[in-house]
Each structure stands twice: as structure tokens, then as C-alpha cells.
Amino acid sequence: MVIQQPSNQIKLTNVALVRLKKGKKRFEIACYKNKVTEWRSGIETDLDNVLQIPNVFLNVSKGQTAPSAELAKAFGKDASVDDIILEILRKGEMQVGEKERSAQLERVHNEVISIVASKLVDPRTKRVYTPGMIEKALDMLSSQAHQKQQEEKDTKSGTATPVTNEEGQSTSGAAQTPKYHWTGVTTTKSAKSQALDAMKALIAYQPIPVARARMRLRITCSTQVLKQTVKAPKAPAGGKDKDAEGAGEHKAPGTVKDKILSFIEQVENQDVMGSEWEVVGFVEPGAFKGLSDFVGGETKGQGRVEVLDMAVTHED
Fold it and tell me: Where can this protein be found (predicted)?
């Protein structure tokens, strides 16, 4: 009977396996997952903090170390164990255990839900949704996306039944292809970028009524430039548009003040203090860049935009 001593037991606790295939053999080292990332980014430099065990293995979970002959054959006779470990760390593929992978996925999932819940509101009441409601809405989109993918596979294989509307017309085709997809959280992208994708999908498909929470801004501008006429955009190449004459009133650029107010959905207050005009109001996040660019360019340094609140919400 084999007696399991502490010296020959490999405890896979918070372990990340870094694997490298070389010379038709796969070599592994046991590391701390977070430390591997830090070492590769240059934050961590001490290998003792990166490695759980300073050995090279053929199979970490079985405690099967790599024979010296195998290491010499794959990495060269002059390569030391430390050199081999460094090469595996640099070039190897990191594998985490199932429990660690599940925990990481859950962390990213919770972070995505938290970000989305803080940025979206009910457009009618401006109130935030609970994380649970956001999660259910994303689950609906994920299920629909997976169902759509399956239908596309069935269509390619010729086993799908065409879906028609009330008029008997097929609902398949390019016009039905969604612009934004949400198939669930992954660990290969940052939570912030995935939250942005999730918000785009929720806004596009509206499984529940949602809109981006508005930004609250303060815009200040010198009164000297407020009444200046905004420069009209250049006419498109190729001559006059047929509808140009009839749309002349829509082409009138107006004044700097008119243009600034056109970006603001709701004015909270505005006032003139000496030679400076100030307005506080609510703006859709998508309009923020255009407003900032306009104020920065059109006022030539005599105006500025200040963010008072990145996401204005109402909570019960």
C-alpha cells in the first residue's frame, strides 16, 4: 500500500498550471494564478512568489516530475531547471482548475451585472433596476442568441423549418441579423468591456425598458461668444442635394448658445454671472463627446464642460 506523505502530495489549491509542449512532450509547472499574471506584466519579479513548487512536471496533478533526460532532450543539455521554468512561464499556456475557473467566471459575471445595473435606468421613471432584474434580462438575451445560433446551424444543414410572419413572409435574412449579441460572460475579456456590450444589447432589444442613465453636466462659456453664429458644415461633394432648398431651415446652424442647448435633454438651471454664462443640465452619455468637442473647438478656450455626475439615477 502506498503511503501518501505530505512530500508527494500536490495540493491543487489556488493553483494554475502553465503548460508548454516541446519536443513532443508536454511540460507543466504549478504556479499561483494571480502571480503568473503579475510576473508576465513585470509587477512580480521573485519566482519564489510565483511558483508553488520549483519543479518541472509531466503531470502536476499526479506529482509526476519530468526526468532530467526528457528535459535535456526537449530544452537542450545546457538548460538549467530555472531556465526551463522561465521559458515555460514566458511561452506556456496557463490552465486553471475547474473550481478556480468557475470562481473567476462568477467574479466577472457579478462585476458585469453590477456595472450594468449602475448605468441603466427605466426611461420612464429614471429609477435603477435591481441586479437581479438586469441578470434575468441578460439571461433572456443569451437564450435568444443561442437559439438564433442553433437556428442558423439548422438552416445551413437544411433541417430548419422556415419561420414566417402573419403575411406568410419569411423572417429570416440579413435584415433579421442582430447588430449586438449577448451570449454570456467570458473570462477572456475585461468586465468593463463586457458590461458595455451587455448595455448595447439591452438597449437594442429592450427585454425590459432600459436607457443609459443621463450625465449631469455644467457648461460655462464666455458671454462674448454665445451669440456668435456657428459655422455651417461644408456641403457634400457632388453638387447640391435635391432636398437642400426645402431643408434650408434645418441647415441653419444657429448660435453657439443654441448649439450647446441642443445637446442638453433637460436644463436644470442657467444663469449669467458677470461675463460668464453657466448652464447645468442632463445629457445622454452618447452626446457627451460631441458636446465637449464643440465647446472646446467653437469657443476657442472660452468655454468648458464639467461632469457633475456620471450617471444620474433614482433609487427606491
Answer: Cytoplasm; Nucleus
